[in-house]
Structure formats: C-alpha cells, structure tokens
Fold this sequence. Notes:
Layout: H1 2-20, E1 23-24, E2 27-28, H2 31-40, H3 45-62, H4 69-87, H5 93-118, H6 126-160
Antiparallel strand pairs: 1-2
Amino acid sequence: MARLIFHLSLGVALFFLQVLLLPLHQTRLDLPNLLVFYEASHPFLFSAVFLAVLLGLVVDCYANGPLGLHAGLYLVVVILARVFKRHLNLQAIIPQILAVALTLLIQGWLELGILSLLEPTGVFHFQAVRLNLEKAGITALFAPPGFLLLHWLDKTAGRYFFDPRSVTTELDDLD
Length: 175
C-alpha cells in the first residue's frame, strides 16, 4: 500500500512538473503516462489499475474534458502496456520507444475521437493531430531514461518507505 501511495504522489508531482515547468513550445512531455506505463509493465496489475484510475481523476480535475476521460485513457495505457510487455522485450531501448510511442498515439487518437464525439464541430483539427504526434514522439524518446529514473526512485524509496522486495528487479542488470 505504501508503494501505491508513493506512486500516486509521484504521479501528481510529475503532473504538476509537466504543467508548470516543462512546456516545450506547445508540446509537453507526458510524464504521468510514462509512470502509468512503467507501473503497468510490472507484475502488479492491481496497483497499475489503481494508479491509472486515481491519477486519471486527478488529471481530470485540472483538464477541460469530462470527468473520467483521463482515467479511462490511462486504463488504455495499462492494457496496451500489458500487451506490449507480452510481445516485446521492454528492457531494450528500441522496443521501449516503440511501445510508448504506439501507446501514446493510440491514446491520443482515442482522446481526439471521444472529444470530437462530445463536441461535434464538423471540423477536423489538424493542429491537435500534429500536437499528438509531437507529444508521442518527445515522450517516447524520453522513455528509456525516464524508466531508468523511475526504477531508481522505486529502489531508493523502497529502502526507506516500503518493502524493497515489492519492487521488481527487471532493470537491475542496467545498474
């Protein structure tokens, strides 16, 4: 339970860091998505779903969309991360980049589709598609060092706050 609380507080901190400090032009790194993907690639499915729903609701409180939109989109990230984990070696850099990029592209297309269904304007927003592609590309390129940083934070926090055996050691050979 302490690990879930740690990841939830880390996710909220990453969300505020992303919104307040890391605007890259109009595109931003999607740090909460990286955390959800990282958590979903571990064997603890319950903690990944719990994190996705709660972090999605926190993001929804600050977003312009309907309540529950990001919670549902983060659940899509959990599902896709579990699928990619079965079929790709997520310890290698190229599969990490591809998996995160595809996940964020699918999530972005779902978000655009849901928002266009809720607010039909009849106009296709090429600007939103371009920003979605940029966000997916920038976040995917940041995924390998981001996962290493999250793994290090997991191990470091595990020594002080929760049982370190609950932290999986998939990336230990990279230390």
